[in-house]
Recover the amino acids of this structure.
């Protein structure tokens, strides 16, 4: 290689290095813009005062309430021969890798996580010791030394082989230490990991079982403890958010004395375990899901068949989910199938028929005392006729006839008349429930259950009763209302002499609801047949599915085999009609005249500087704290009184186009300030277990190493799947009140919670974030959280709306189901929370409803939610911070804004899908969205400032103690501002690097040119 060539090669390499450096700078700039808030949160903190010592707020208050929540929610599933409670100070041996502090599960993975300081974390072992039990320390040390190798990711199962376990028992002196063994079985779950596995992880003797079944090693342990070690008492504790297969509990060879469902316990809920085991707390939890002996039985469970392999089939291939089970999942399937004799052929060692299939019904739970129920009043009387506006009220006196103080749950179900081939109906439907206060032995408490006739209606989406109507309807016939101890057991044996557990009401001719009795909107099918939004029926009929694709009760579920033998495949995503629906742009809100923006003809301001003067943008977003801000109470009162009042139009017209765009584009964990109308920049945080920064941190596993001081001081509640087992509305109301107090202390305005999707199957990875398989239980618990939070000026984005009951965040997945199933199951939960809890904010979901993204589905977001139910407030998307998330059929602003979606959870500083500000319809829709966002804040503040808190006296019966305990200052919450020091530092460094590159290029080029010139000169001399 001559000198000239060598010089060119070296220079080319150096130019390449410079190009790489410049590319890195460009990429870094793009990354920094996209993840601006994440980086700021990680490097600079949240700006929130970490002391949280404002007013009466104390983190200990949340920790104590978490302890109460654990005690209210844990379910005693089994208690053979009164094995529990144990004696005070009893000695216990604790077995199972899940028993160790490092393995005890307090939260799931993802937005349901939270950060807990190690000293605040209550584990099983801490609970047992705090309760006074003497624990075999050698066994404890052995399990503490085990660090499972995660060969199968977050779902790994690991127990020592039986030979090693026997050796450990001998060396620890377990049999000499105590005759009592506590065995812990733990199972994980999470948002950002796949669905619950259908095969167990490596390290177990069997690879043919599912994750929710006991492993061979776990069963070996149980059998050894009973047969060889001969422990007198074997107590099983379940540390899982998902309903497990617990058939071993009822299998004699394992000798299980008692079984307690403890769930994911949050920071302090585990405190209750020891107290329950020794009898200090009388367990009062009830199952929020049904427990069956074989959830994977394709012969008897339709949801199992249509949900299995969901990750493989949905997320990687067809992106279709057909809910072919129709309305029949959870207890509604098992109780209805039993009523039809479908299980008559079933038989095993556990029994025949229903008893061979179901281990613990929905709503089941044991306690340490006995209760007697007496019906004090029923209105209307037995055998009365129902009318459209009938309100049913049943008052029940509950007497403690046992020897221990305790609480009881009174459950009310209804059985509607059913005609084979008519409207689909479950034979058993929860319609109301109440939990008593603590009742001393011999004492009584009264609960009143209220039900409207509307709540007994079925949605006839296919006009199956041939009356020409498609609405909520009450068919002709008898409606049986029953008091039950669980979904299967009518409380006849619990009733006092002269009281009946059953009341019957009559309908002489079919009753049809033309309008919603609460929201006032016209009711009709919105997603079915010719009336389906975007031209494709949500049940897929006409694009590949038929009515026969869905399970029917007709002729005792005669079509079970054809609908549920193998997974039902949905319509092709390449079907032209389906693709057109996915990209459909709603014309219903089209306008031709450009709306007024930036108007100065009025000057309404929601927040002002004290005294009424205009607040600047810096003041509204917390950058200028030299002045005190105040709410314009008169304006807020007027706005809250009339959603359609003239001042609302004037207010949104004051906002500039830039303000409108910022508001809906950048709603990632915040909503932007708007100087023109005096709107604050508000901070909103995730997640269902309490405020957290996981999404902002990019840390989904939790852990104090990833958190700020503030996050360590926020309360982490027991998971919703455990709180659902409390069946206690007042408990959830109190949690809502506390969250409002914590929000006030932290300057937080909105909460991405509660999670309200249903446990359609035990194998859904996000069940820990949701309360139950049942919409009524879910709806009322969520309604009380929302009500309590709103009372303390915190709005809640109830999530995820709607039909997102499967998959690890099923983005772009088409959900096919009947409109009846949609309205009676997943939508009913949100309906209750909106109507009963005053919900004014909702997060939509990743999935499609039919082929249309949930946030762009006009039928669900506007026609039903707003039009029928009367919802007023904000619709927020789920997270969509990447450019790939946008476009027709995805999180499109064009589709979403036109259909009712308001703001986008975009955590970037980049607009990926900007609206056309020359399009009058899009500007009009942006104004509508701004109004909804403003309404959420106005309505929440007005509710908090005008609610008569003395009503809490009657609710809690504590002479105002609860009201005083959770009272807050309703002054303006200014979002904290953080100086993102890394941005100017990064800019300076990048400028220096680029300048350095420029200098480098200059010298490389000069050197190259000089060398070439010298080479040319030398060549010329030689010539």
């Amino acid at each position: 290689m001559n000198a000239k060539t060598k010089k060119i090669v070296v220079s080319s390499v150096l130019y390449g290095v410079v190009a790489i450096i410049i590319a890195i700078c460009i990429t870094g700039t793009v990354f920094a813009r996209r993840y601006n808030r994440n980086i700021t949160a990680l490097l600079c903190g949240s700006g929130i005062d970490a002391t949280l010592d404002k007013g009466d707020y104390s983190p200990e208050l949340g920790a104590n309430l978490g302890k109460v929540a654990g005690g209210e929610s844990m379910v005693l599933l089994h208690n053979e021969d009164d094995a529990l409670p144990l004696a005070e100070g009893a000695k216990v041996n604790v077995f199972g890798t899940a028993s160790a502090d490092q393995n005890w599960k307090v939260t799931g993975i993802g937005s349901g996580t939270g950060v807990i300081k190690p000293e605040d974390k209550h584990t099983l072992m801490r609970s047992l010791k705090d309760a006074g039990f003497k624990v075999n320390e050698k066994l404890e040390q052995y399990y503490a030394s085990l660090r499972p190798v995660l060969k199968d990711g977050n779902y790994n199962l690991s127990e020592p082989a039986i030979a090693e376990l026997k050796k450990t028992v001998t060396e620890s002196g377990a049999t000499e230490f105590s005759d009592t063994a506590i065995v812990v079985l733990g199972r994980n779950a999470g948002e950002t990991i796949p669905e619950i596995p259908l095969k167990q992880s490596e390290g177990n003797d069997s690879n043919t079982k599912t994750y929710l079944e006991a492993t061979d090693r776990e069963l070996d342990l149980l059998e050894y403890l009973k047969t060889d070690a001969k422990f007198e008492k074997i107590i099983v504790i379940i540390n899982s958010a998902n309903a497990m297969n617990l058939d071993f509990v009822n299998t004699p060879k394992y000798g299980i004395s008692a079984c307690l469902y403890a769930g994911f316990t949050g920071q302090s809920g585990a405190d209750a375990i020891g107290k329950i085991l020794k009898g200090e707390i009388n367990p009062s939890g009830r199952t929020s899901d049904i427990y069956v002996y074989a959830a994977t039985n394709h012969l008897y469970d339709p949801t199992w068949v249509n949900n299995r392999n969901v990750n493989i089939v949905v997320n990687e291939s067809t992106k279709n989910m057909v809910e072919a089970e129709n309305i029949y999942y959870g207890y509604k399937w098992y109780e209805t199938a039993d009523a039809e004799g479908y299980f008559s052929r079933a038989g095993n060692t556990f029994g025949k028929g229903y008893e061979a299939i179901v281990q613990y019904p929905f709503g089941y739970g044991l306690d340490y005392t006995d209760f007697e129920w007496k019906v004090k009043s029923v209105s209307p009387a037995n055998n009365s006729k129902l009318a459209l506006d009938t309100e049913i009220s049943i008052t029940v006196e509950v007497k403690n006839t046992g020897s221990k103080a305790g609480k009881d749950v009174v459950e009310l179900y209804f059985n509607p008349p059913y005609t084979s081939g008519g409207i689909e109906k479950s034979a058993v439907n929860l319609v109301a429930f109440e939990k008593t206060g603590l009742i001393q032995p011999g004492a009584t408490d009264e609960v009143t259950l209220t039900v409207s006739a509307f709540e007994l209606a079925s949605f006839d989406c296919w006009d199956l009763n041939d009356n020409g109507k498609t609405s909520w309807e009450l068919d002709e016939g008898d409606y049986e209302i029953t008091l039950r101890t669980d979904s299967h057991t009518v409380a006849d044996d619990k009733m006092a002499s002269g009281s009946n557990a059953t009341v019957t009401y009559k309908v002489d001719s079919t009753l049809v609801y033309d309008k919603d009795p609460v929201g006032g909107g016209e009711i009709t099918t919105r997603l079915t047949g010719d009336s389906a939004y975007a031209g494709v029926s949500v049940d897929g009929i006409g694009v590949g599915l038929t009515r026969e694709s869905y399970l029917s009760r007709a002729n005792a579920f005669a079509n079970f085999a054809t609908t549920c033998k193998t997974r039902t495949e949905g319509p092709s995503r390449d079907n032209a009609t389906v693709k057109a629906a996915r990209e459909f742009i709603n014309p219903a809100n089209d306008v031709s005249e450009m709306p007024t923006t930036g108007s100065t003809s009025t000057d309404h301001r929601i927040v002002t500087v004290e005294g009424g003067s205009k607040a600047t943008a810096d003041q509204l977003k917390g950058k200028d704290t030299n002045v005190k801000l105040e709410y314009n109470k008169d304006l807020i009162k007027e706005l809250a009184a009339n959603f359609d009042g003239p001042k609302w139009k004037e207010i949104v017209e004051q906002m500039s186009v830039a303000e409108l765009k910022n508001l809906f584009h950048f709603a990632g964990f915040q909503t932007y300030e708007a100087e023109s109308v005096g709107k604050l920049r508000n901070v909103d945080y995730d997640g269902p277990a309490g405020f957290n920064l996981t999404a902002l941190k990019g840390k989904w596993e939790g852990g104090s190493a990833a958190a700020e001081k503030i996050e360590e001081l926020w309360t982490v509640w027991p998971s919703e799947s455990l709180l659902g087992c409390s069946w206690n509305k007042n408990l959830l109301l109190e949690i809502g009140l506390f969250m409002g107090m914590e929000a006030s202390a932290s300057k937080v305005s909105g909460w991405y919670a509660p999670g309200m999707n249903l446990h359609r199957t035990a194998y859904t990875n996000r069940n820990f974030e949701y309360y139950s398989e049942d919409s009524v239980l879910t709806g009322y618990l969520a309604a009380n959280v929302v009500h309590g939070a709103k009372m303390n000026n915190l709005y809640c984005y109830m999530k995820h709306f709607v039909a997102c009951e499967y998959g690890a965040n099923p983005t772009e997945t088409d959900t096919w189901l009947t409109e009846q199933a949609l309205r009676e199951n997943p939508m009913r939960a949100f309906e209750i929370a909106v109507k009963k809890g005053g919900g004014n904010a909702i997060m939509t979901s990743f999935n499609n409803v039919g082929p249309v993204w949930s946030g762009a589905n006009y039928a669900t977001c506007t026609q039903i939610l707003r039009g029928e139910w009367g919802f007023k407030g904000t619709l927020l998307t789920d997270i969509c911070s990447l450019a790939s998330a946008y476009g027709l059929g995805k999180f499109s602003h064009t589709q979403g804004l036109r259909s009712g979606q308001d703001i986008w959870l975009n955590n970037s500083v980049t607009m990926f899908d900007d609206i056309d500000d020359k399009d009058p319809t899009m500007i009009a829709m942006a104004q509508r969205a701004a109004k909804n966002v403003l309404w959420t804040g106005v309505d929440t503040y007005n509710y908090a400032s005008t609610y008569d808190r003395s009503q809490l006296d009657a609710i809690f019966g504590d002479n105002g103690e609860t009201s005083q305990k959770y009272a807050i200052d309703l002054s303006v919450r200014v979002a904290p501002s953080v100086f993102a020091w890394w941005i100017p530092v990064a800019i300076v460094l990048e400028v220096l690097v680029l300048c350095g590159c420029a200098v480098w290029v200059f010298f490389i080029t000069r050197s190259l040119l000089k060398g070439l010139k010298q080479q040319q000169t030398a060549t010329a001399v030689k010539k």
Observations:
- The first strand starts at residue 75 and ends at 79.
- Residues 982-1022 form the longest helix (41 residues).
